[in-house]
Amino acid sequence: MEKGKACKNTVKIHSLNPSCRLKYFILHCIREINEQLIGSFKFITSETVNILYSSIMWVTILLASIGISLSGLIISFTFYGENIKECWKETLISSLLIIPVFMCVISLSVIVPFGLSALGIANEYILLVLIISMPIMTTPIFLYKYIVIPLYYLLFRKKEMNPEYTKLLTDNDCHGKVFVIKNSNIACTMGITKKSQIIMIGSNLIENLSKDEYTGILLHEIGHIKYKHLRKLILIDIVGVYITMLTGFLASYSSNKNPYVIVAAIGLAGGLIPFLRIIMKQYEKKADGYAAQIIGADTYISALTKLNGLFAGRMDKYDIEHPRLKDRIENIKKCCKNRH
Asked: Are residues 145 and 180 in the same domain?
């Protein structure tokens, strides 16, 4: 009798989709551990075990959030050639500020599906909730990339507003301010509204480049503002992550009788992300063309070459968002040639 019951349960488990199998396995393990703990130690109750599981889950989420926030800052600073040893305190403080954001994102992505499943809600409705909530879950990632890292430089690094460089913005029919960040190689733009638009340029660029050369770098950032690239990039990133998460959920909740759904989901996510990155690289080339046509191709190419030296040659290597230096130079020559 027991053997027949076990066989019946096995068939039932195998009929579940992969996500449900995982949930079943986790619940089975928890049930076994509960029985062992409560059976061996009379003072341990089921409430104590639940508190223990919750504590482990939140500690794991906290550690994951710390790792993501720290690694994100370090990767960004490394690209700009920053010395992490010299600014480790500011880096740590910045990561602590953003940890709660990532904790919310990770918690939602973990708790929502398992919580709804535990309440007995059907997979189809869980998937619908996840699809609706994904924009909320993914927004902090883009706030981190486009706002938190630039704010780090504004809040924790010595800076000064430069009226001369700010005038360059108005001369090119743009609004905003230009800040010079002390002892930095940074060159970036933040803000999507006229009043919030800011260009940050590192003092190392001003010291190592001629006036025309670092003016060319400023014009590149002004090009991003003029063509509204930042707004478009945020939208592109949101679409990319949204579709990736959506296809992941679809693959997870699809029946194992339909493996084509999983293959199609992986193919869609894998094929779309590179396409979106190509668009981002085109924006960089367009900003290069804008700067080169104003300051001159030779001057701007010289500026990029020196900038590559400050970045320890990283502009020669593959980057998911920026074209290689060689490709950028070819594009600059082509843009200026077509103009003449």
From this structure: no
Q: What is the pLDDT of residues 18-31, one digit of tens each?
A: 445 555 565 566 56
Is residue 152 within 8 A of residue 90, CB to CB? The reply is yes
What pTM was computed for the model? 0.66
- Both 217 and 254 in one domain: the answer is yes
Q: What is the pLDDT of residues 184-228, one digit of tens each?
A: 888 888 877 777 788 989 888 999 999 999 999 999 999 999 999
What would the 3-class secondary structure string for the chain be? CHHHHHHHHHHHHHCCCHHHHHHHHHHHHHHHHHHHHHHHCCCCCHHHHHHHHHHHHHHHHHHHHHHHHHHHHHHHHHHCCCCCCCCHHHHHHHHHHHHHHHHHHHHHHHHHHHHHHHCCCCHHHHHHHHHHHHHHHHHHHHHHHHHHHHHHHHHHCCEEECHHHHHHHHHCCCCCEEEEECCCCCEEEECCCCCCCEEEEEHHHHHHCCHHHHHHHHHHHHHHHHCCHHHHHHHHHHHHHHHHHHHHHHHHHCCCCCHHHHHHHHHHHHHHHHHHHHHHHHHHHHHHHHHHHHHCHHHHHHHHHHHHHHCCCHHHCCCCCCCCHHHHHHHHHHHHHHHC
Task: Specify whether 265 is located in the same domain as 304.
Answer: yes
- Tell me whether residue 283 is in a domain: yes
Is 40 part of a structural domain of the chain? Answer: no
pLDDT digits (tens, 9 = 90+) for 71-128: 656 655 555 555 556 556 655 666 666 666 666 666 666 666 666 665 666 666 666 6
Q: 165 is in which domain, residue-wise?
A: 161-339
pLDDT for res 26: 58
Nearest to 79 by CA among 184, 197, 222: 184
Number of domains, the chain: 2
The answer on 170 and 133 residing in a single domain is: no
